[in-house]
DNA sequence: AAAAAAC
């Protein structure tokens, strides 16, 4: 209840800080040196960790400054171990920190954006009020309210400001202090709520202030990153890399990405030039490990994005190999953070192998599907799907291509920021429609059919070349091709602004996949629409779907409820654990607790949820009196 | 049964 006040305070505090530091234009001060006051800068006091304020910009004019002076500590290990002694001596080795670092913000002239400029990357924070939060584990560090409450370091703070992140999102408020405290973490937070930054900030900050003294063994041509971030698709790794580069700009922390389908030579070159944070997909990383071009022995941070996917049947062996069978330090000697919007209990149990005395955190409602997404289910026979899709697209077009989707009586304006965009931008930022299908062949044929019928569509799936995939995504994002037909390759993590409508042309078999798919819209507090085509082929999903919709306060069609009621298989693997949260710590479930191996220090919940709804036969959760009980030493952010 | 992920 005091949240609004404290957030408002923090906003003005952040704005003052930003204005105070960047105000003087007469003398150029590199961004990473602004806001630096000798007394308050703990990073400057560290011996060798972060950028060196003295050497970084002796003339005050070198914007490529900000090198690390501990080049030998991490990343590429030069053959001779001496100054400039790397085999890759093109740049003299010693000055790799001075390599040209492309400005990811594109504001090289360092002028502030014109006032009145839209904040189209901003998060709609009002949408995140009353979000329930659950934590469990030993000694959970309390959440912070502002970025200023956390000492992330000046360079990182400057990048946060340039990203226009004024306030931390709920998952960031909870995650960052946990992570800075060095704790392992399993975090479950709704789609589009800022998870990437939540694990990137502490990693970058931790590397900046890390001790430099660690001696790395001699391993020519072997890169030794300090942090590893794994994700299940190439595009997602690429996206995380782009984000991380922004956050790490001029911090001296080097971020490199490696994934398949792209020439390995360039990735090798990047690795040779030094890497602190490696973002990768599993296959290419295993390749690099087997070639001994990467060693994991220096890993201090391991983050798995979409962690439940990374640990499901298809990926688990590769992940085990990377995490357990190569040279990565074991749990306890590294910090491990797992993130996803969904976390089935079976996967949680698998995941606990990788964790040490971890904290479980759940932020958000119902498997992370937010009520910002309007979910519709329509009964459509298999043979009618194409014409039905056509009807939807025509209706959308007729309603104005700029993001208004007719929703019965009320119009849902799906392009929230449109009013603030300059006219020239509005033209290009039309509402985008993402259509999910089951198979790669199905994607190709639907794309062809749409194009033949005058709808500009493209497609992304695993049978296309990486070039084609990336081109399709770009073309979709730009609005050039406002319809994208996709397989599950695009279901998770991709942050595509202006996706107004997600169509589940073919529903997935797993409710968690549905949650991730519809999460491509309604991001960053904006609203969105998700339409599903349902028929008898989807009966395995009907129960969990109707339950999910009820919990997200969605209108469940009567026919769907009837269908769900008569569906004979009551439980099945699609049943959720019976909680109203997307995640619940499996350690709190008695059927999972065996022996004393797990550390579990109690649980805490808070948030505005009412009477149990929809989970009549659920997991015996509502009755057990968790709500409102607070464990020792932990306070909720929402009370 | 499908999708993803290395060459």
TrEMBL record:
Recorded superkingdom: Eukaryota
Compositional bias annotation for Basic and acidic residues: 93-102, 582-591
Segments forming domain Helicase ATP-binding: 176-361
Cross-referenced InterPro entries: DEAD/DEAH_box_helicase_dom, Ded1/Dbp1_DEADc, Helicase_ATP-bd, Helicase_C-like, P-loop_NTPase, RNA_helicase_DEAD_Q_motif
Keyword Nucleotide-binding: yes
A molecular function GO annotation: RNA helicase activity
Pfam families recorded: DEAD, Helicase_C
EC numbers: 3.6.4.13
Residues in DEAD-box RNA helicase Q domain copies: 145-173
Domain Helicase C-terminal residue range list: 424-564
Segments of skewed composition (Gly residues): 76-87
Key words, A-Z: ATP-binding, Helicase, Hydrolase, Nucleotide-binding, RNA-binding
SUPFAM superfamilies from the UniProt entry: P-loop containing nucleoside triphosphate hydrolases
Family per record: Belongs to the DEAD box helicase family. DDX3/DED1 subfamily.
Name of protein: RNA helicase
Taxonomic classification: Eukaryota, Viridiplantae, Streptophyta, Embryophyta, Tracheophyta
């Amino acid at each position: 209840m005091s949240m609004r006040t404290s957030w408002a305070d923090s906003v003005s505090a952040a704005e003052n800080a930003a204005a105070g530091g960047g105000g003087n234009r007469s003398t150029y001060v590199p961004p990473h040196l602004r806001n630096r006051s000798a007394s308050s800068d703990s990073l400057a006091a560290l011996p060798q960790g972060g950028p060196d304020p003295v050497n970084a910009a002796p003339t005050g004019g070198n914007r490529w400054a900000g090198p690390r002076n501990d080049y030998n500590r991490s990343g590429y290990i030069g053959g001779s171990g001496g100054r400039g002694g790397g085999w890759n001596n093109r740049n003299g080795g010693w000055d790799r920190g001075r390599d040209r670092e492309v400005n990811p913000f594109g504001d090289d002239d360092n002028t502030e954006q014109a006032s009145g400029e839209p904040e189209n990357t901003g998060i709609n924070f009002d949408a995140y009020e009353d979000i329930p939060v659950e934590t469990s584990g030993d000694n959970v560090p309390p959440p912070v309210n502002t970025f200023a409450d956390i000492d992330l370091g000046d360079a990182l703070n400057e990048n946060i400001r340039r990203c226009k992140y004024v306030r931390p999102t709920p998952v960031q408020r909870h995650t960052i202090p946990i992570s800075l405290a060095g704790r392992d973490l399993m975090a479950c937070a709704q789609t589009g709520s800022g998870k990437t930054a939540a694990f990137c900030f502490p990693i970058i900050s931790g590397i900046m202030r890390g001790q430099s003294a660690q001696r790395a063994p001699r391993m020519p041509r072997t890169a030794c990153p300090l942090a590893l971030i794994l994700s299940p698709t190439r595009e997602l790794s690429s996206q995380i890399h782009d984000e991380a580069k922004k956050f790490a700009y001029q911090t001296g922390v080097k971020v490199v990405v490696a994934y398949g389908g792209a020439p390995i030579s360039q990735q090798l070159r990047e690795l040779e030039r030094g890497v602190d944070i490696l973002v990768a997909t599993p296959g290419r990383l295993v390749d690099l490990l087997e070639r001994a071009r990467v060693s994991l022995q220096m890993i201090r941070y391991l983050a798995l994005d979409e962690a439940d996917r990374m640990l499901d049947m298809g990926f688990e062996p590769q992940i085990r190999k990377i995490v357990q069978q190569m040279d990565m330090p074991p749990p306890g000697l590294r910090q491990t953070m797992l993130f996803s919007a969904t976390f089935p209990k079976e996967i949680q149990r698998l995941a606990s192998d990788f964790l040490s005395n971890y904290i479980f955190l759940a932020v958000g409602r119902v498997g992370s599907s937010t009520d910002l997404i309007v979910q519709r289910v329509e009964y459509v026979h298999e043979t009618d799907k194409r014409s039905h899709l056509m009807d939807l697209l025509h209706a959308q077009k007729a309603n104005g291509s700029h993001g208004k989707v007719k929703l019965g009586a009320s119009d849902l304006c799906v392009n929230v920021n449109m009013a603030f965009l300059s006219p020239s931008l509005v033209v290009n930022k039309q509402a985008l429609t993402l259509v999910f299908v089951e198979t790669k062949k199905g994607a190709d044929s639907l794309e062809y059919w749409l194009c033949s019928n005058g709808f500009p569509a493209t497609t992304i799936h695993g049978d296309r070349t990486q070039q084609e995939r990336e081109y399709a995504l770009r073309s979709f994002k730009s609005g050039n091709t406002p319809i994208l037909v996709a397989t599950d390759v695009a279901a998770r993590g991709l942050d595509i602004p202006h996706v107004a409508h997600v169509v589940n042309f073919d529903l997935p078999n797993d409710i968690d996949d549905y949650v991730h798919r519809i999460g491509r819209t309604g991001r960053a507090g904006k609203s969105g629409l998700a339409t599903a085509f349902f028929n008898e082929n989807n009966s395995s999903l009907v129960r969990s779907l109707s339950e999910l919709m009820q919990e997200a306060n969605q209108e469940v069609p009567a026919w769907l409820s009837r269908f769900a009621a008569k569906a004979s298989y009551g439980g099945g693997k699609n049943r959720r654990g019976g909680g109203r949260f997307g995640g619940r710590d499996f350690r709190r479930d008695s059927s999972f607790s065996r022996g004393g191996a797990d550390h579990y220090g109690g649980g805490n919940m808070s948030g505005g949820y009412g009477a149990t709804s929809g989970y009549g036969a659920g997991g015996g959760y509502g009755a057990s009196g968790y709500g409102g009980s607070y464990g020792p030493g932990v306070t909720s952010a929402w009370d």
